[in-house]
Amino acid sequence: MNNSGWSHTESPFHPGELAVQARLGIQDRIDRQGRRIIRDYLTEQHQKFFAQLSYVIIGTVDKSGNPWASILVGEPGFLEVIGDRKLQVKTKLLTGDPLAVTLNEGIDIGLLGIELHTRRRNRINGVVTKINADNFEIEVKQAFGNCPQYIQGRTFESVKSNLSPQINEITSFGECERNLITNADTFFIATAYQDEFASNNTNKGVDVSHKGGKPSFVRIDNNQTLTIPDFSGNNHFNTIGNLELNPRAGLLFIDFARSNLLYLTGTTEIIWSGTEVSSYQGAERLIRFHLTQGYQVENSLPLSWSNPKSSKFLDQTGSW
User: Fold this and answer.
1) What are 158-175's pLDDT values in tens digits?
2) What domain of life does the UniProt record list for this protein's source (predicted)?
């Protein structure tokens, strides 16, 4: 199979990503790197990877422009790879997942295929091209792999609960939300660049990323505000680049002990420097998140998880 890189003349990165890379003096190097590893199709390795997954993280945007991060769960093969540029997703949505509202033909969508137990992860940014009665299809626009940094190792097994999911809409962090966020060593963030006037459609869309750290690495500042350290990564700045142009973000927290899910959407600001940044070992900048709306769904996730094995990269990070 041909595993050539980016085949387009224009950069695989959009203006927000390029601006952050230029700010840090790495734009030329990362552009060359991106053209090698970012593709507009799935390599054979990535096709096999997505086909074996039991869960996938999804990023979408609602009609009001709010990004949401979601999770889909199914038996291996629920992500059916059709050729090297199309996926068919065959599973039921979880109760209370915002994807039930955001999923429509023609929308941008981001996928993060991640195996916590192997620490492998690969990304797809694409477009929903068709919605059928029991599945939907995605056309791949960008696909690339990520390194295993900051991923806590967890094995899982499928479970069935006799309890019905309970959906609680929130506009501030109550005791349940605070406990989950405070104890979290993992969350996922959805962001978007969707300039309808952009001449280049190959690098626009929705991105969803993994974020990991020591428990309590997400700081609760008040009942609507979180502050999150941003550690060294692949220097693509997919998340930060999106937030430079569009400050909205969606967060997904998984309660690995109780199968609860916390979906949040809101606005952000980037703290580039200062005593807050320098006081947190390993932080290169901070993301401050202001809650607009959220849903806490109890008894939702049909997976049971082992205790985590912390990433060795956490040794290089501090705490609040």
Assistant:
1) 998 888 999 999 999 999
2) Bacteria
